[in-house]
UniProtKB/TrEMBL annotation:
This is Cystathionine gamma-synthase family protein. PROSITE patterns: CYS_MET_METAB_PP (PS00868). It holds the Pfam family Cys_Met_Meta_PP. InterPro entries: Cys/Met-Metab_PyrdxlP-dep_enz, Cys_met_metab_PP, PyrdxlP-dep_Trfase, PyrdxlP-dep_Trfase_major, PyrdxlP-dep_Trfase_small. It comes from Glaciecola petra. Belongs to the trans-sulfuration enzymes family. Its cofactor is pyridoxal 5'-phosphate. The lineage of its organism: Bacteria, Pseudomonadati, Pseudomonadota, Gammaproteobacteria, Alteromonadales. CDD domains: CGS_like.
Amino acid sequence: MANNDSYKKSKIGEHSLKPETLMMSYGYNPQLSEGSVKPPVFLTSTFAYQTPEEGEESFHIMAGRKPAPEGNVGGLIYSRFNHPNVEIIEDRLSLYEKSESSVVCSSGMGAISAILLAYLRPGDVIVQSAPLYGGTETLIRKFLPQFNIQTGEFINGLDESEMLSSLRASTKKGRVAMVFIESPANPTNSLVDFAALMRVLDIIEKETGHRPISVCDNTLMGPVFQQVVPQGIDMAMYSLTKYVGGHSDLVAGAVCGSREMLRPVRATRGALGLNLDPHTSWMISRSLETLSIRMERAAQSGRKVAQWIAENPYRSAKLLHPDFIEDQEYKNVYKRQCSGPSSTFSFVLDISKAEAFRFINNLSIFKSAVSLGGSESLVCHPASTTHSGVAAELRDLFGVSDGLIRLSIGLEHPDDLIIDLEQAFKATF
């Protein structure tokens, strides 16, 4: 959409408006759409130019032959490249993540693919934190090596020396082009210390003359409880399917970062046809208006549910909820990087897979399903679903055991969720 200060106003005088306020109007000018208070769905494949000169200029900008105007991504051409609905949510998501720009894609895996294909080349090495979401693990460990892109990993993201050792070892395989992390990680809620990672990247840059790009999957916390770009990470990646969409009725993804960093990602999105459709973009713009209150309410309920599990009289459970992890180093990093715990967490029981399945089958309110961050509460057994494609020895190494059960707390009353858990504990154990 054309740049216009009147509908991209983020301050009143010296007062900076909060994201919750800006989600209602930022990036959309009603006067360009018959005065409609809410953005319409722009169901068009192509856009008309006033002159052929305008069309030529738009293609120069979209192809990267000319820079886009300040605060803009260029003219509207074709909905595979951009359209008003996707530009609105890119503007608004950038406000929440506190990044300069955003690129929205047709899925979270589409966003990850756009990042990897934009920046990795044969002979490069990508170093990952572990665990990652199962789909990401598969893409990095099984897909990329087919194109001669090698991998490395570190498990303890709170240990600066382990991260440095991993990256140094990886430089022997080739150019370490990227470090891809997930913090907090799905499903263990393990953290990567961003400040420590930045110091490690400084050392690698000094030793090799090349600084690896840093990417963080910020789906579990962000953008309400954690913003990673302001903390030095080059790109934040999101599965918008989860909390941002928030109603388990759409699939989408996004990448946030500087305009320059996202330029090749945006080009890759257009070349591969990874843009998000107008209707789903419109649905996300509606969800962004309630994002903060949904995540805050779900986090409050999640704390209450986690507290009950920690104190339950039926079976001892190890709780993988950020507020209940006792490690002091973890607490320090969590306090520094995050402003809240979100509402997705796991607990680990000393039980077999069959017993875990029996427990899940005894639940009434919790739906047994993958994904997370929706308005309904979900229960998942990652070892047999989302992470089943990860080798068993790696799952054991990461702590994704048969006794690990993941909960995504939704918007039901927490007392009802606790009653459901209690009756399932009683019936199972």
